[in-house]
Amino acid sequence: MAVRESRESRTEKQNGKDGPPELEFPVKVLRDLKAPAKRWGEFEQTIDILLLTVNTHGFLCCFQYLEEVFKSFDSNLGFVFFGKMGEREREKLQVALLQCCEGGGQPGGAGITLPKAVEMLRPKAVFCVGSCAALHRDKTRLGDVVAAAKLTTYAQRRVSANKVVPSGFSIPASKNTSRLIPFAAFGWKPPLKNPEVEREEVRVHSDGEILSGPEEIASVTRRDELVQLYPNAIAVEMDGDGVFAASHDLKTEWIVIKGIWRYADCNDASDEWLTFANAMAASVVNNILSDPFVFEHWPRYRDISSNSSKGPAVEEPLTLTNANLSSMLGGLVQQLLGQYETGKIKYKGRIIEYSSTKRIHSFDELFVFDGKARDYGSGIEEESRHFYTSQEAIEHALEKLKKRLLSEGLVG
After folding, report:
1. Are 373 and 395 contacting, i.e. CB atoms less than 8 angstroms apart?
2. pLDDT digits over 237-282, tens only?
3. Residue 358 pairs with which residues in a beta bridge?
4. Fewer CB within 10 A of the end CB, N or C, for the chain?
């Protein structure tokens, strides 16, 4: 009964155009975004989580939760802010924060920007964080958060002489993130200045359907039309369709988490509610990411696509030759003894990855090692083959790469 009265009281406040509850922290403004800068390629760009926002409100609220922040610039992505998230002292998630344009299919929108970011940063999952418009005044309240269990595109329609039939698609959240959504609110405390008084002010809807499309809807007629076509949907936004399309093509985990800042049947909203809704959405994301070990075994981009892109194996008759025998023995021995060694070093401000591979060479020289070294920033690689120890193979490859970087003017 107390909960219901609190929610009803809140409805009256919103209809009376009162502002949102006060946050426990002041949201930063653009002039506060002071972070050290690093040249692209001078640090490890591979991340765990990519946070994608579409306006400064969402960006600033997500920035609030980043630790050890620095920024970098890439001509394809613009400025990207890097940092860490997670409540455990020793384990932190490597996170990148990126802002794109609103509208999934617009130039510079999520559908265009996300593929570039995923291919360059190789995240384990993409979180689309921001704001949305509610479709039902009786089911949701301003400031509530929608962790979309299902995303539906509504713009695609088949128009005939007699009727209009929706022909979009409706998909659940991706496999791994769908297991997190039901627990999004577990242990979550809304960042309110007076949580004891306002404890029933904000809810997380973790079983809802969210509509996504190119329209910014602020019309009773259009809102009623969407409610009739999609009775289970609780909110509408403009970016999730692009996030899904890009993530599906890249075989990357994705999730859409949006805070409600207005109702779709009117345009009566304020920047205060926009900031509040984004702050609530960002805090839910921070809660989901609070236990980094959850994501420990999630594959990164390329780890997924490289495996799944392989077609079905075609069985061919096997002719037993010395080469085949050597290959089979090599595979068996590599499985038993360990296939390679890897590592990284810093060289004159650059990150260099190295590895060595053990292989069978001949009956006279049973095992030999090949080395490889790769400059992370430029992608330049050098190899060395046929050494008797792993260390020799790696050192030779590193020396070749250092000379190459010097000859191409990448180091002094």
Report:
1. no
2. 999 999 999 998 899 999 999 999 999 998 777 889 999 999 999 9
3. 369
4. N
